Amino acid sequence: MSSMESYLITLLTRAQPSWLWRYGLTAFMILVTTLIWMSLREAAPSLLVLLYLPAIFLAALLFDKRSGLLATGLSVAAEAMLFAEPLFRLAVESADDLLVLIIFGLLGTAMTLVMDVLRNALRSLQQAKERLAASDQEKDLLLSEVHHRIRNDIQFIIAHLQLAKAQGGDLHEALDRATERIGILGKVYGRLRQQDGSRLVDAKLFLEQLVEDLRLMQAVRPVGLHARVEPADIDPGAALSLGIITNELITNALKYAFPDGRAGRIDVAFRRDGDDFVLTVQDNGVGLAGGAGSTAPQGSGLGSQIVRQLTEQFQGSLDVGEGNGGGLRTTVRLPVGELAPQDV
To answer: Fewer CB near the last or first residue (10 Å), C or N of the chain?
Structure first.
């Protein structure tokens, strides 16, 4: 874009002065044009009528449509008084003079309207360019943030794999758990959205989908999986950790709470309680290892260690105890501020 085009766009889309300045300067331009016209009227009076067109053009260009229409009206009035017979009276007796004034008025009005359409088009174009620039900047920020999150999340998965390697155990089980965690990462990005400058995930949709996927994966077993999740917007990074905690607790219950193919039920609940989010996973299985009075859940290995570490990472608390009517109930309390969406 040339400097002349840029200047024209700036001129047409800039903020306008007050109406008093616009109309005052418009009237002043018509007055100056009239004085020039009167000083040259003996040269070619029929052509000097066109002297008012530049004044109308400038009024419409520099100000707005109303200023252009005012300039047109003042020009017609000045020509009716100083050009058409009888002179110095706002009256026109000649049909030819009247036709000239009508054509001139229509020409000035059309020029003003065209300039107004051009101004509105340039203003819309300028706004579109600004939105496009803001969109490009937002996309750059999003790509940068997604790159940062993916890098951190991959490191998170690698750390869990290294932890599984250090503890030994069955390779197939370790690969299955790693696959589950990567799947949780995919669900987080599938639920990612933006609102008010923040990237966030709806905990209700995310956790309900996670529970449903786990239910379908073990559909052949007579164990019911049920979720009661309240809507809550949380940070994507926190959603990943919350998903892994939920997945580990459900997987642990499926693995240890219902031996020998027995039937059962697992209930998952997520809600806000004051300054905390509370996640509860409860089953009606065999309960705590070691019978009554024990505080160690079945399968207190890698999965339980990951749950504890993530809970501590978010300054939360973990409580494991006997559920209502038997079974095992695990309650994780996480401060709301730790899971809240972070501004971009």
So the answer is: N
Residue 155 lies in a domain: no
Is the Cα dihedral 178, 206, 321, 333 positive or negative?
positive
Same domain, 209 and 97: no
Same domain assignment for residues 229 and 311: yes
| Structure tokens, 263 | 């039937």
- Strands (E) across 67-222 are located at 192-195, 198-202
- CATH number of the domain at 283, please: 3.30.565.10
Distance CA 329, CA 319 (A): 8
Q: Provide the number of structural domains found in the chain.
A: 2
CA dihedral 189, 191, 193, 196 (to 10 degrees): -120
Q: Find out whether the peptide bond into 54 is cis, omega within 30 degrees of 0.
A: no
Residue 139 lies in a domain: no
Write out the residue range of the structural domain in which residue 43 sits.
3-132
What residues are paired with 321 via a beta bridge? 329
pTM for the model stands at 0.53
3-state SS of 291-307 is: CCCCCCCCCCCHHHHHH
With respect to residue 143, please indicate whether it lies within any of the assigned structural domains. no
- The predicted-structure confidence for 140-198, as pLDDT tens digits, reads as follows 655 565 555 566 666 666 666 666 666 665 666 666 666 766 777 666 766 666 555 55
**Residue 37 and residue 195: Cα distance in Å, rounded?**
62
